[in-house]
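Good day; I would like, with your permission, to put a structural problem before you. What I wish to show you is a protein chain and, alongside it, a tokenised description of its three-dimensional fold. Please examine both parts with care and let me know of anything in them that strikes you as inconsistent. Thank you for your consideration; the sequence and its tokens are set out here:

***
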Amino acid sequence: MTDSDFSQWRPHPWHGLSTGPNPPRIVHAFIEITPFDGVKYEVDKVSGYLRVDRPQLTSSLPPTLYGFIPRTYCGTRVAALSKSAKRADGDPLDICVLSERPINRAEIIVNARVIGGLRMVDNGEADDKIISVLEKDPIWAEASELGDVPESLITRLRHYFSTYKLRPGEKDPVTIEEIYGFAIAAKVIEAALLDYRIDYCRQKDL
């Protein structure tokens, strides 16, 4: 090993980590939340450390590992893929990772095999949730489409994201436009990669 084989400082998980070994099929997922978390954590965009965003609003907990794909950005190209979104949310692209074995810690990097996604709109903002399986998982490693995993798992994800911001007596700000397979998920990831290279980097250069 040489000095160039590792970083002497902690890289920023959004900007300093690679997107993955073979995007859009195999990507890196930086995990912010586990299925055991009653609090929503989110990466701090300046420091790269996790900060508390808010306690989960209901008793529903995320059914999978949840985080984002490094060096992606939900900008104009991601928003254009939605029928009803007025804009994108300006965050890295979210990803859910199915794992047969419980993983109970966050701030980790996993290799994730993309199989589909949810076209979600939150308060008018495109907020897609990519669905994936843990690469080399003993149960899900060969999955390549949503139909390769039990429908009940996808239903749990849809229910969680459809209700996780719902407050009694208020209108739900979240809608799920569609559930899509890998072909569309690949387009969303490619759009988010291009948004990062063009939209985000241009903003930082201004």
Q: What stands out?
A: The chain has one domain: 12-205. The radius of gyration is 16 Å. The chain has a mean pLDDT of 91.
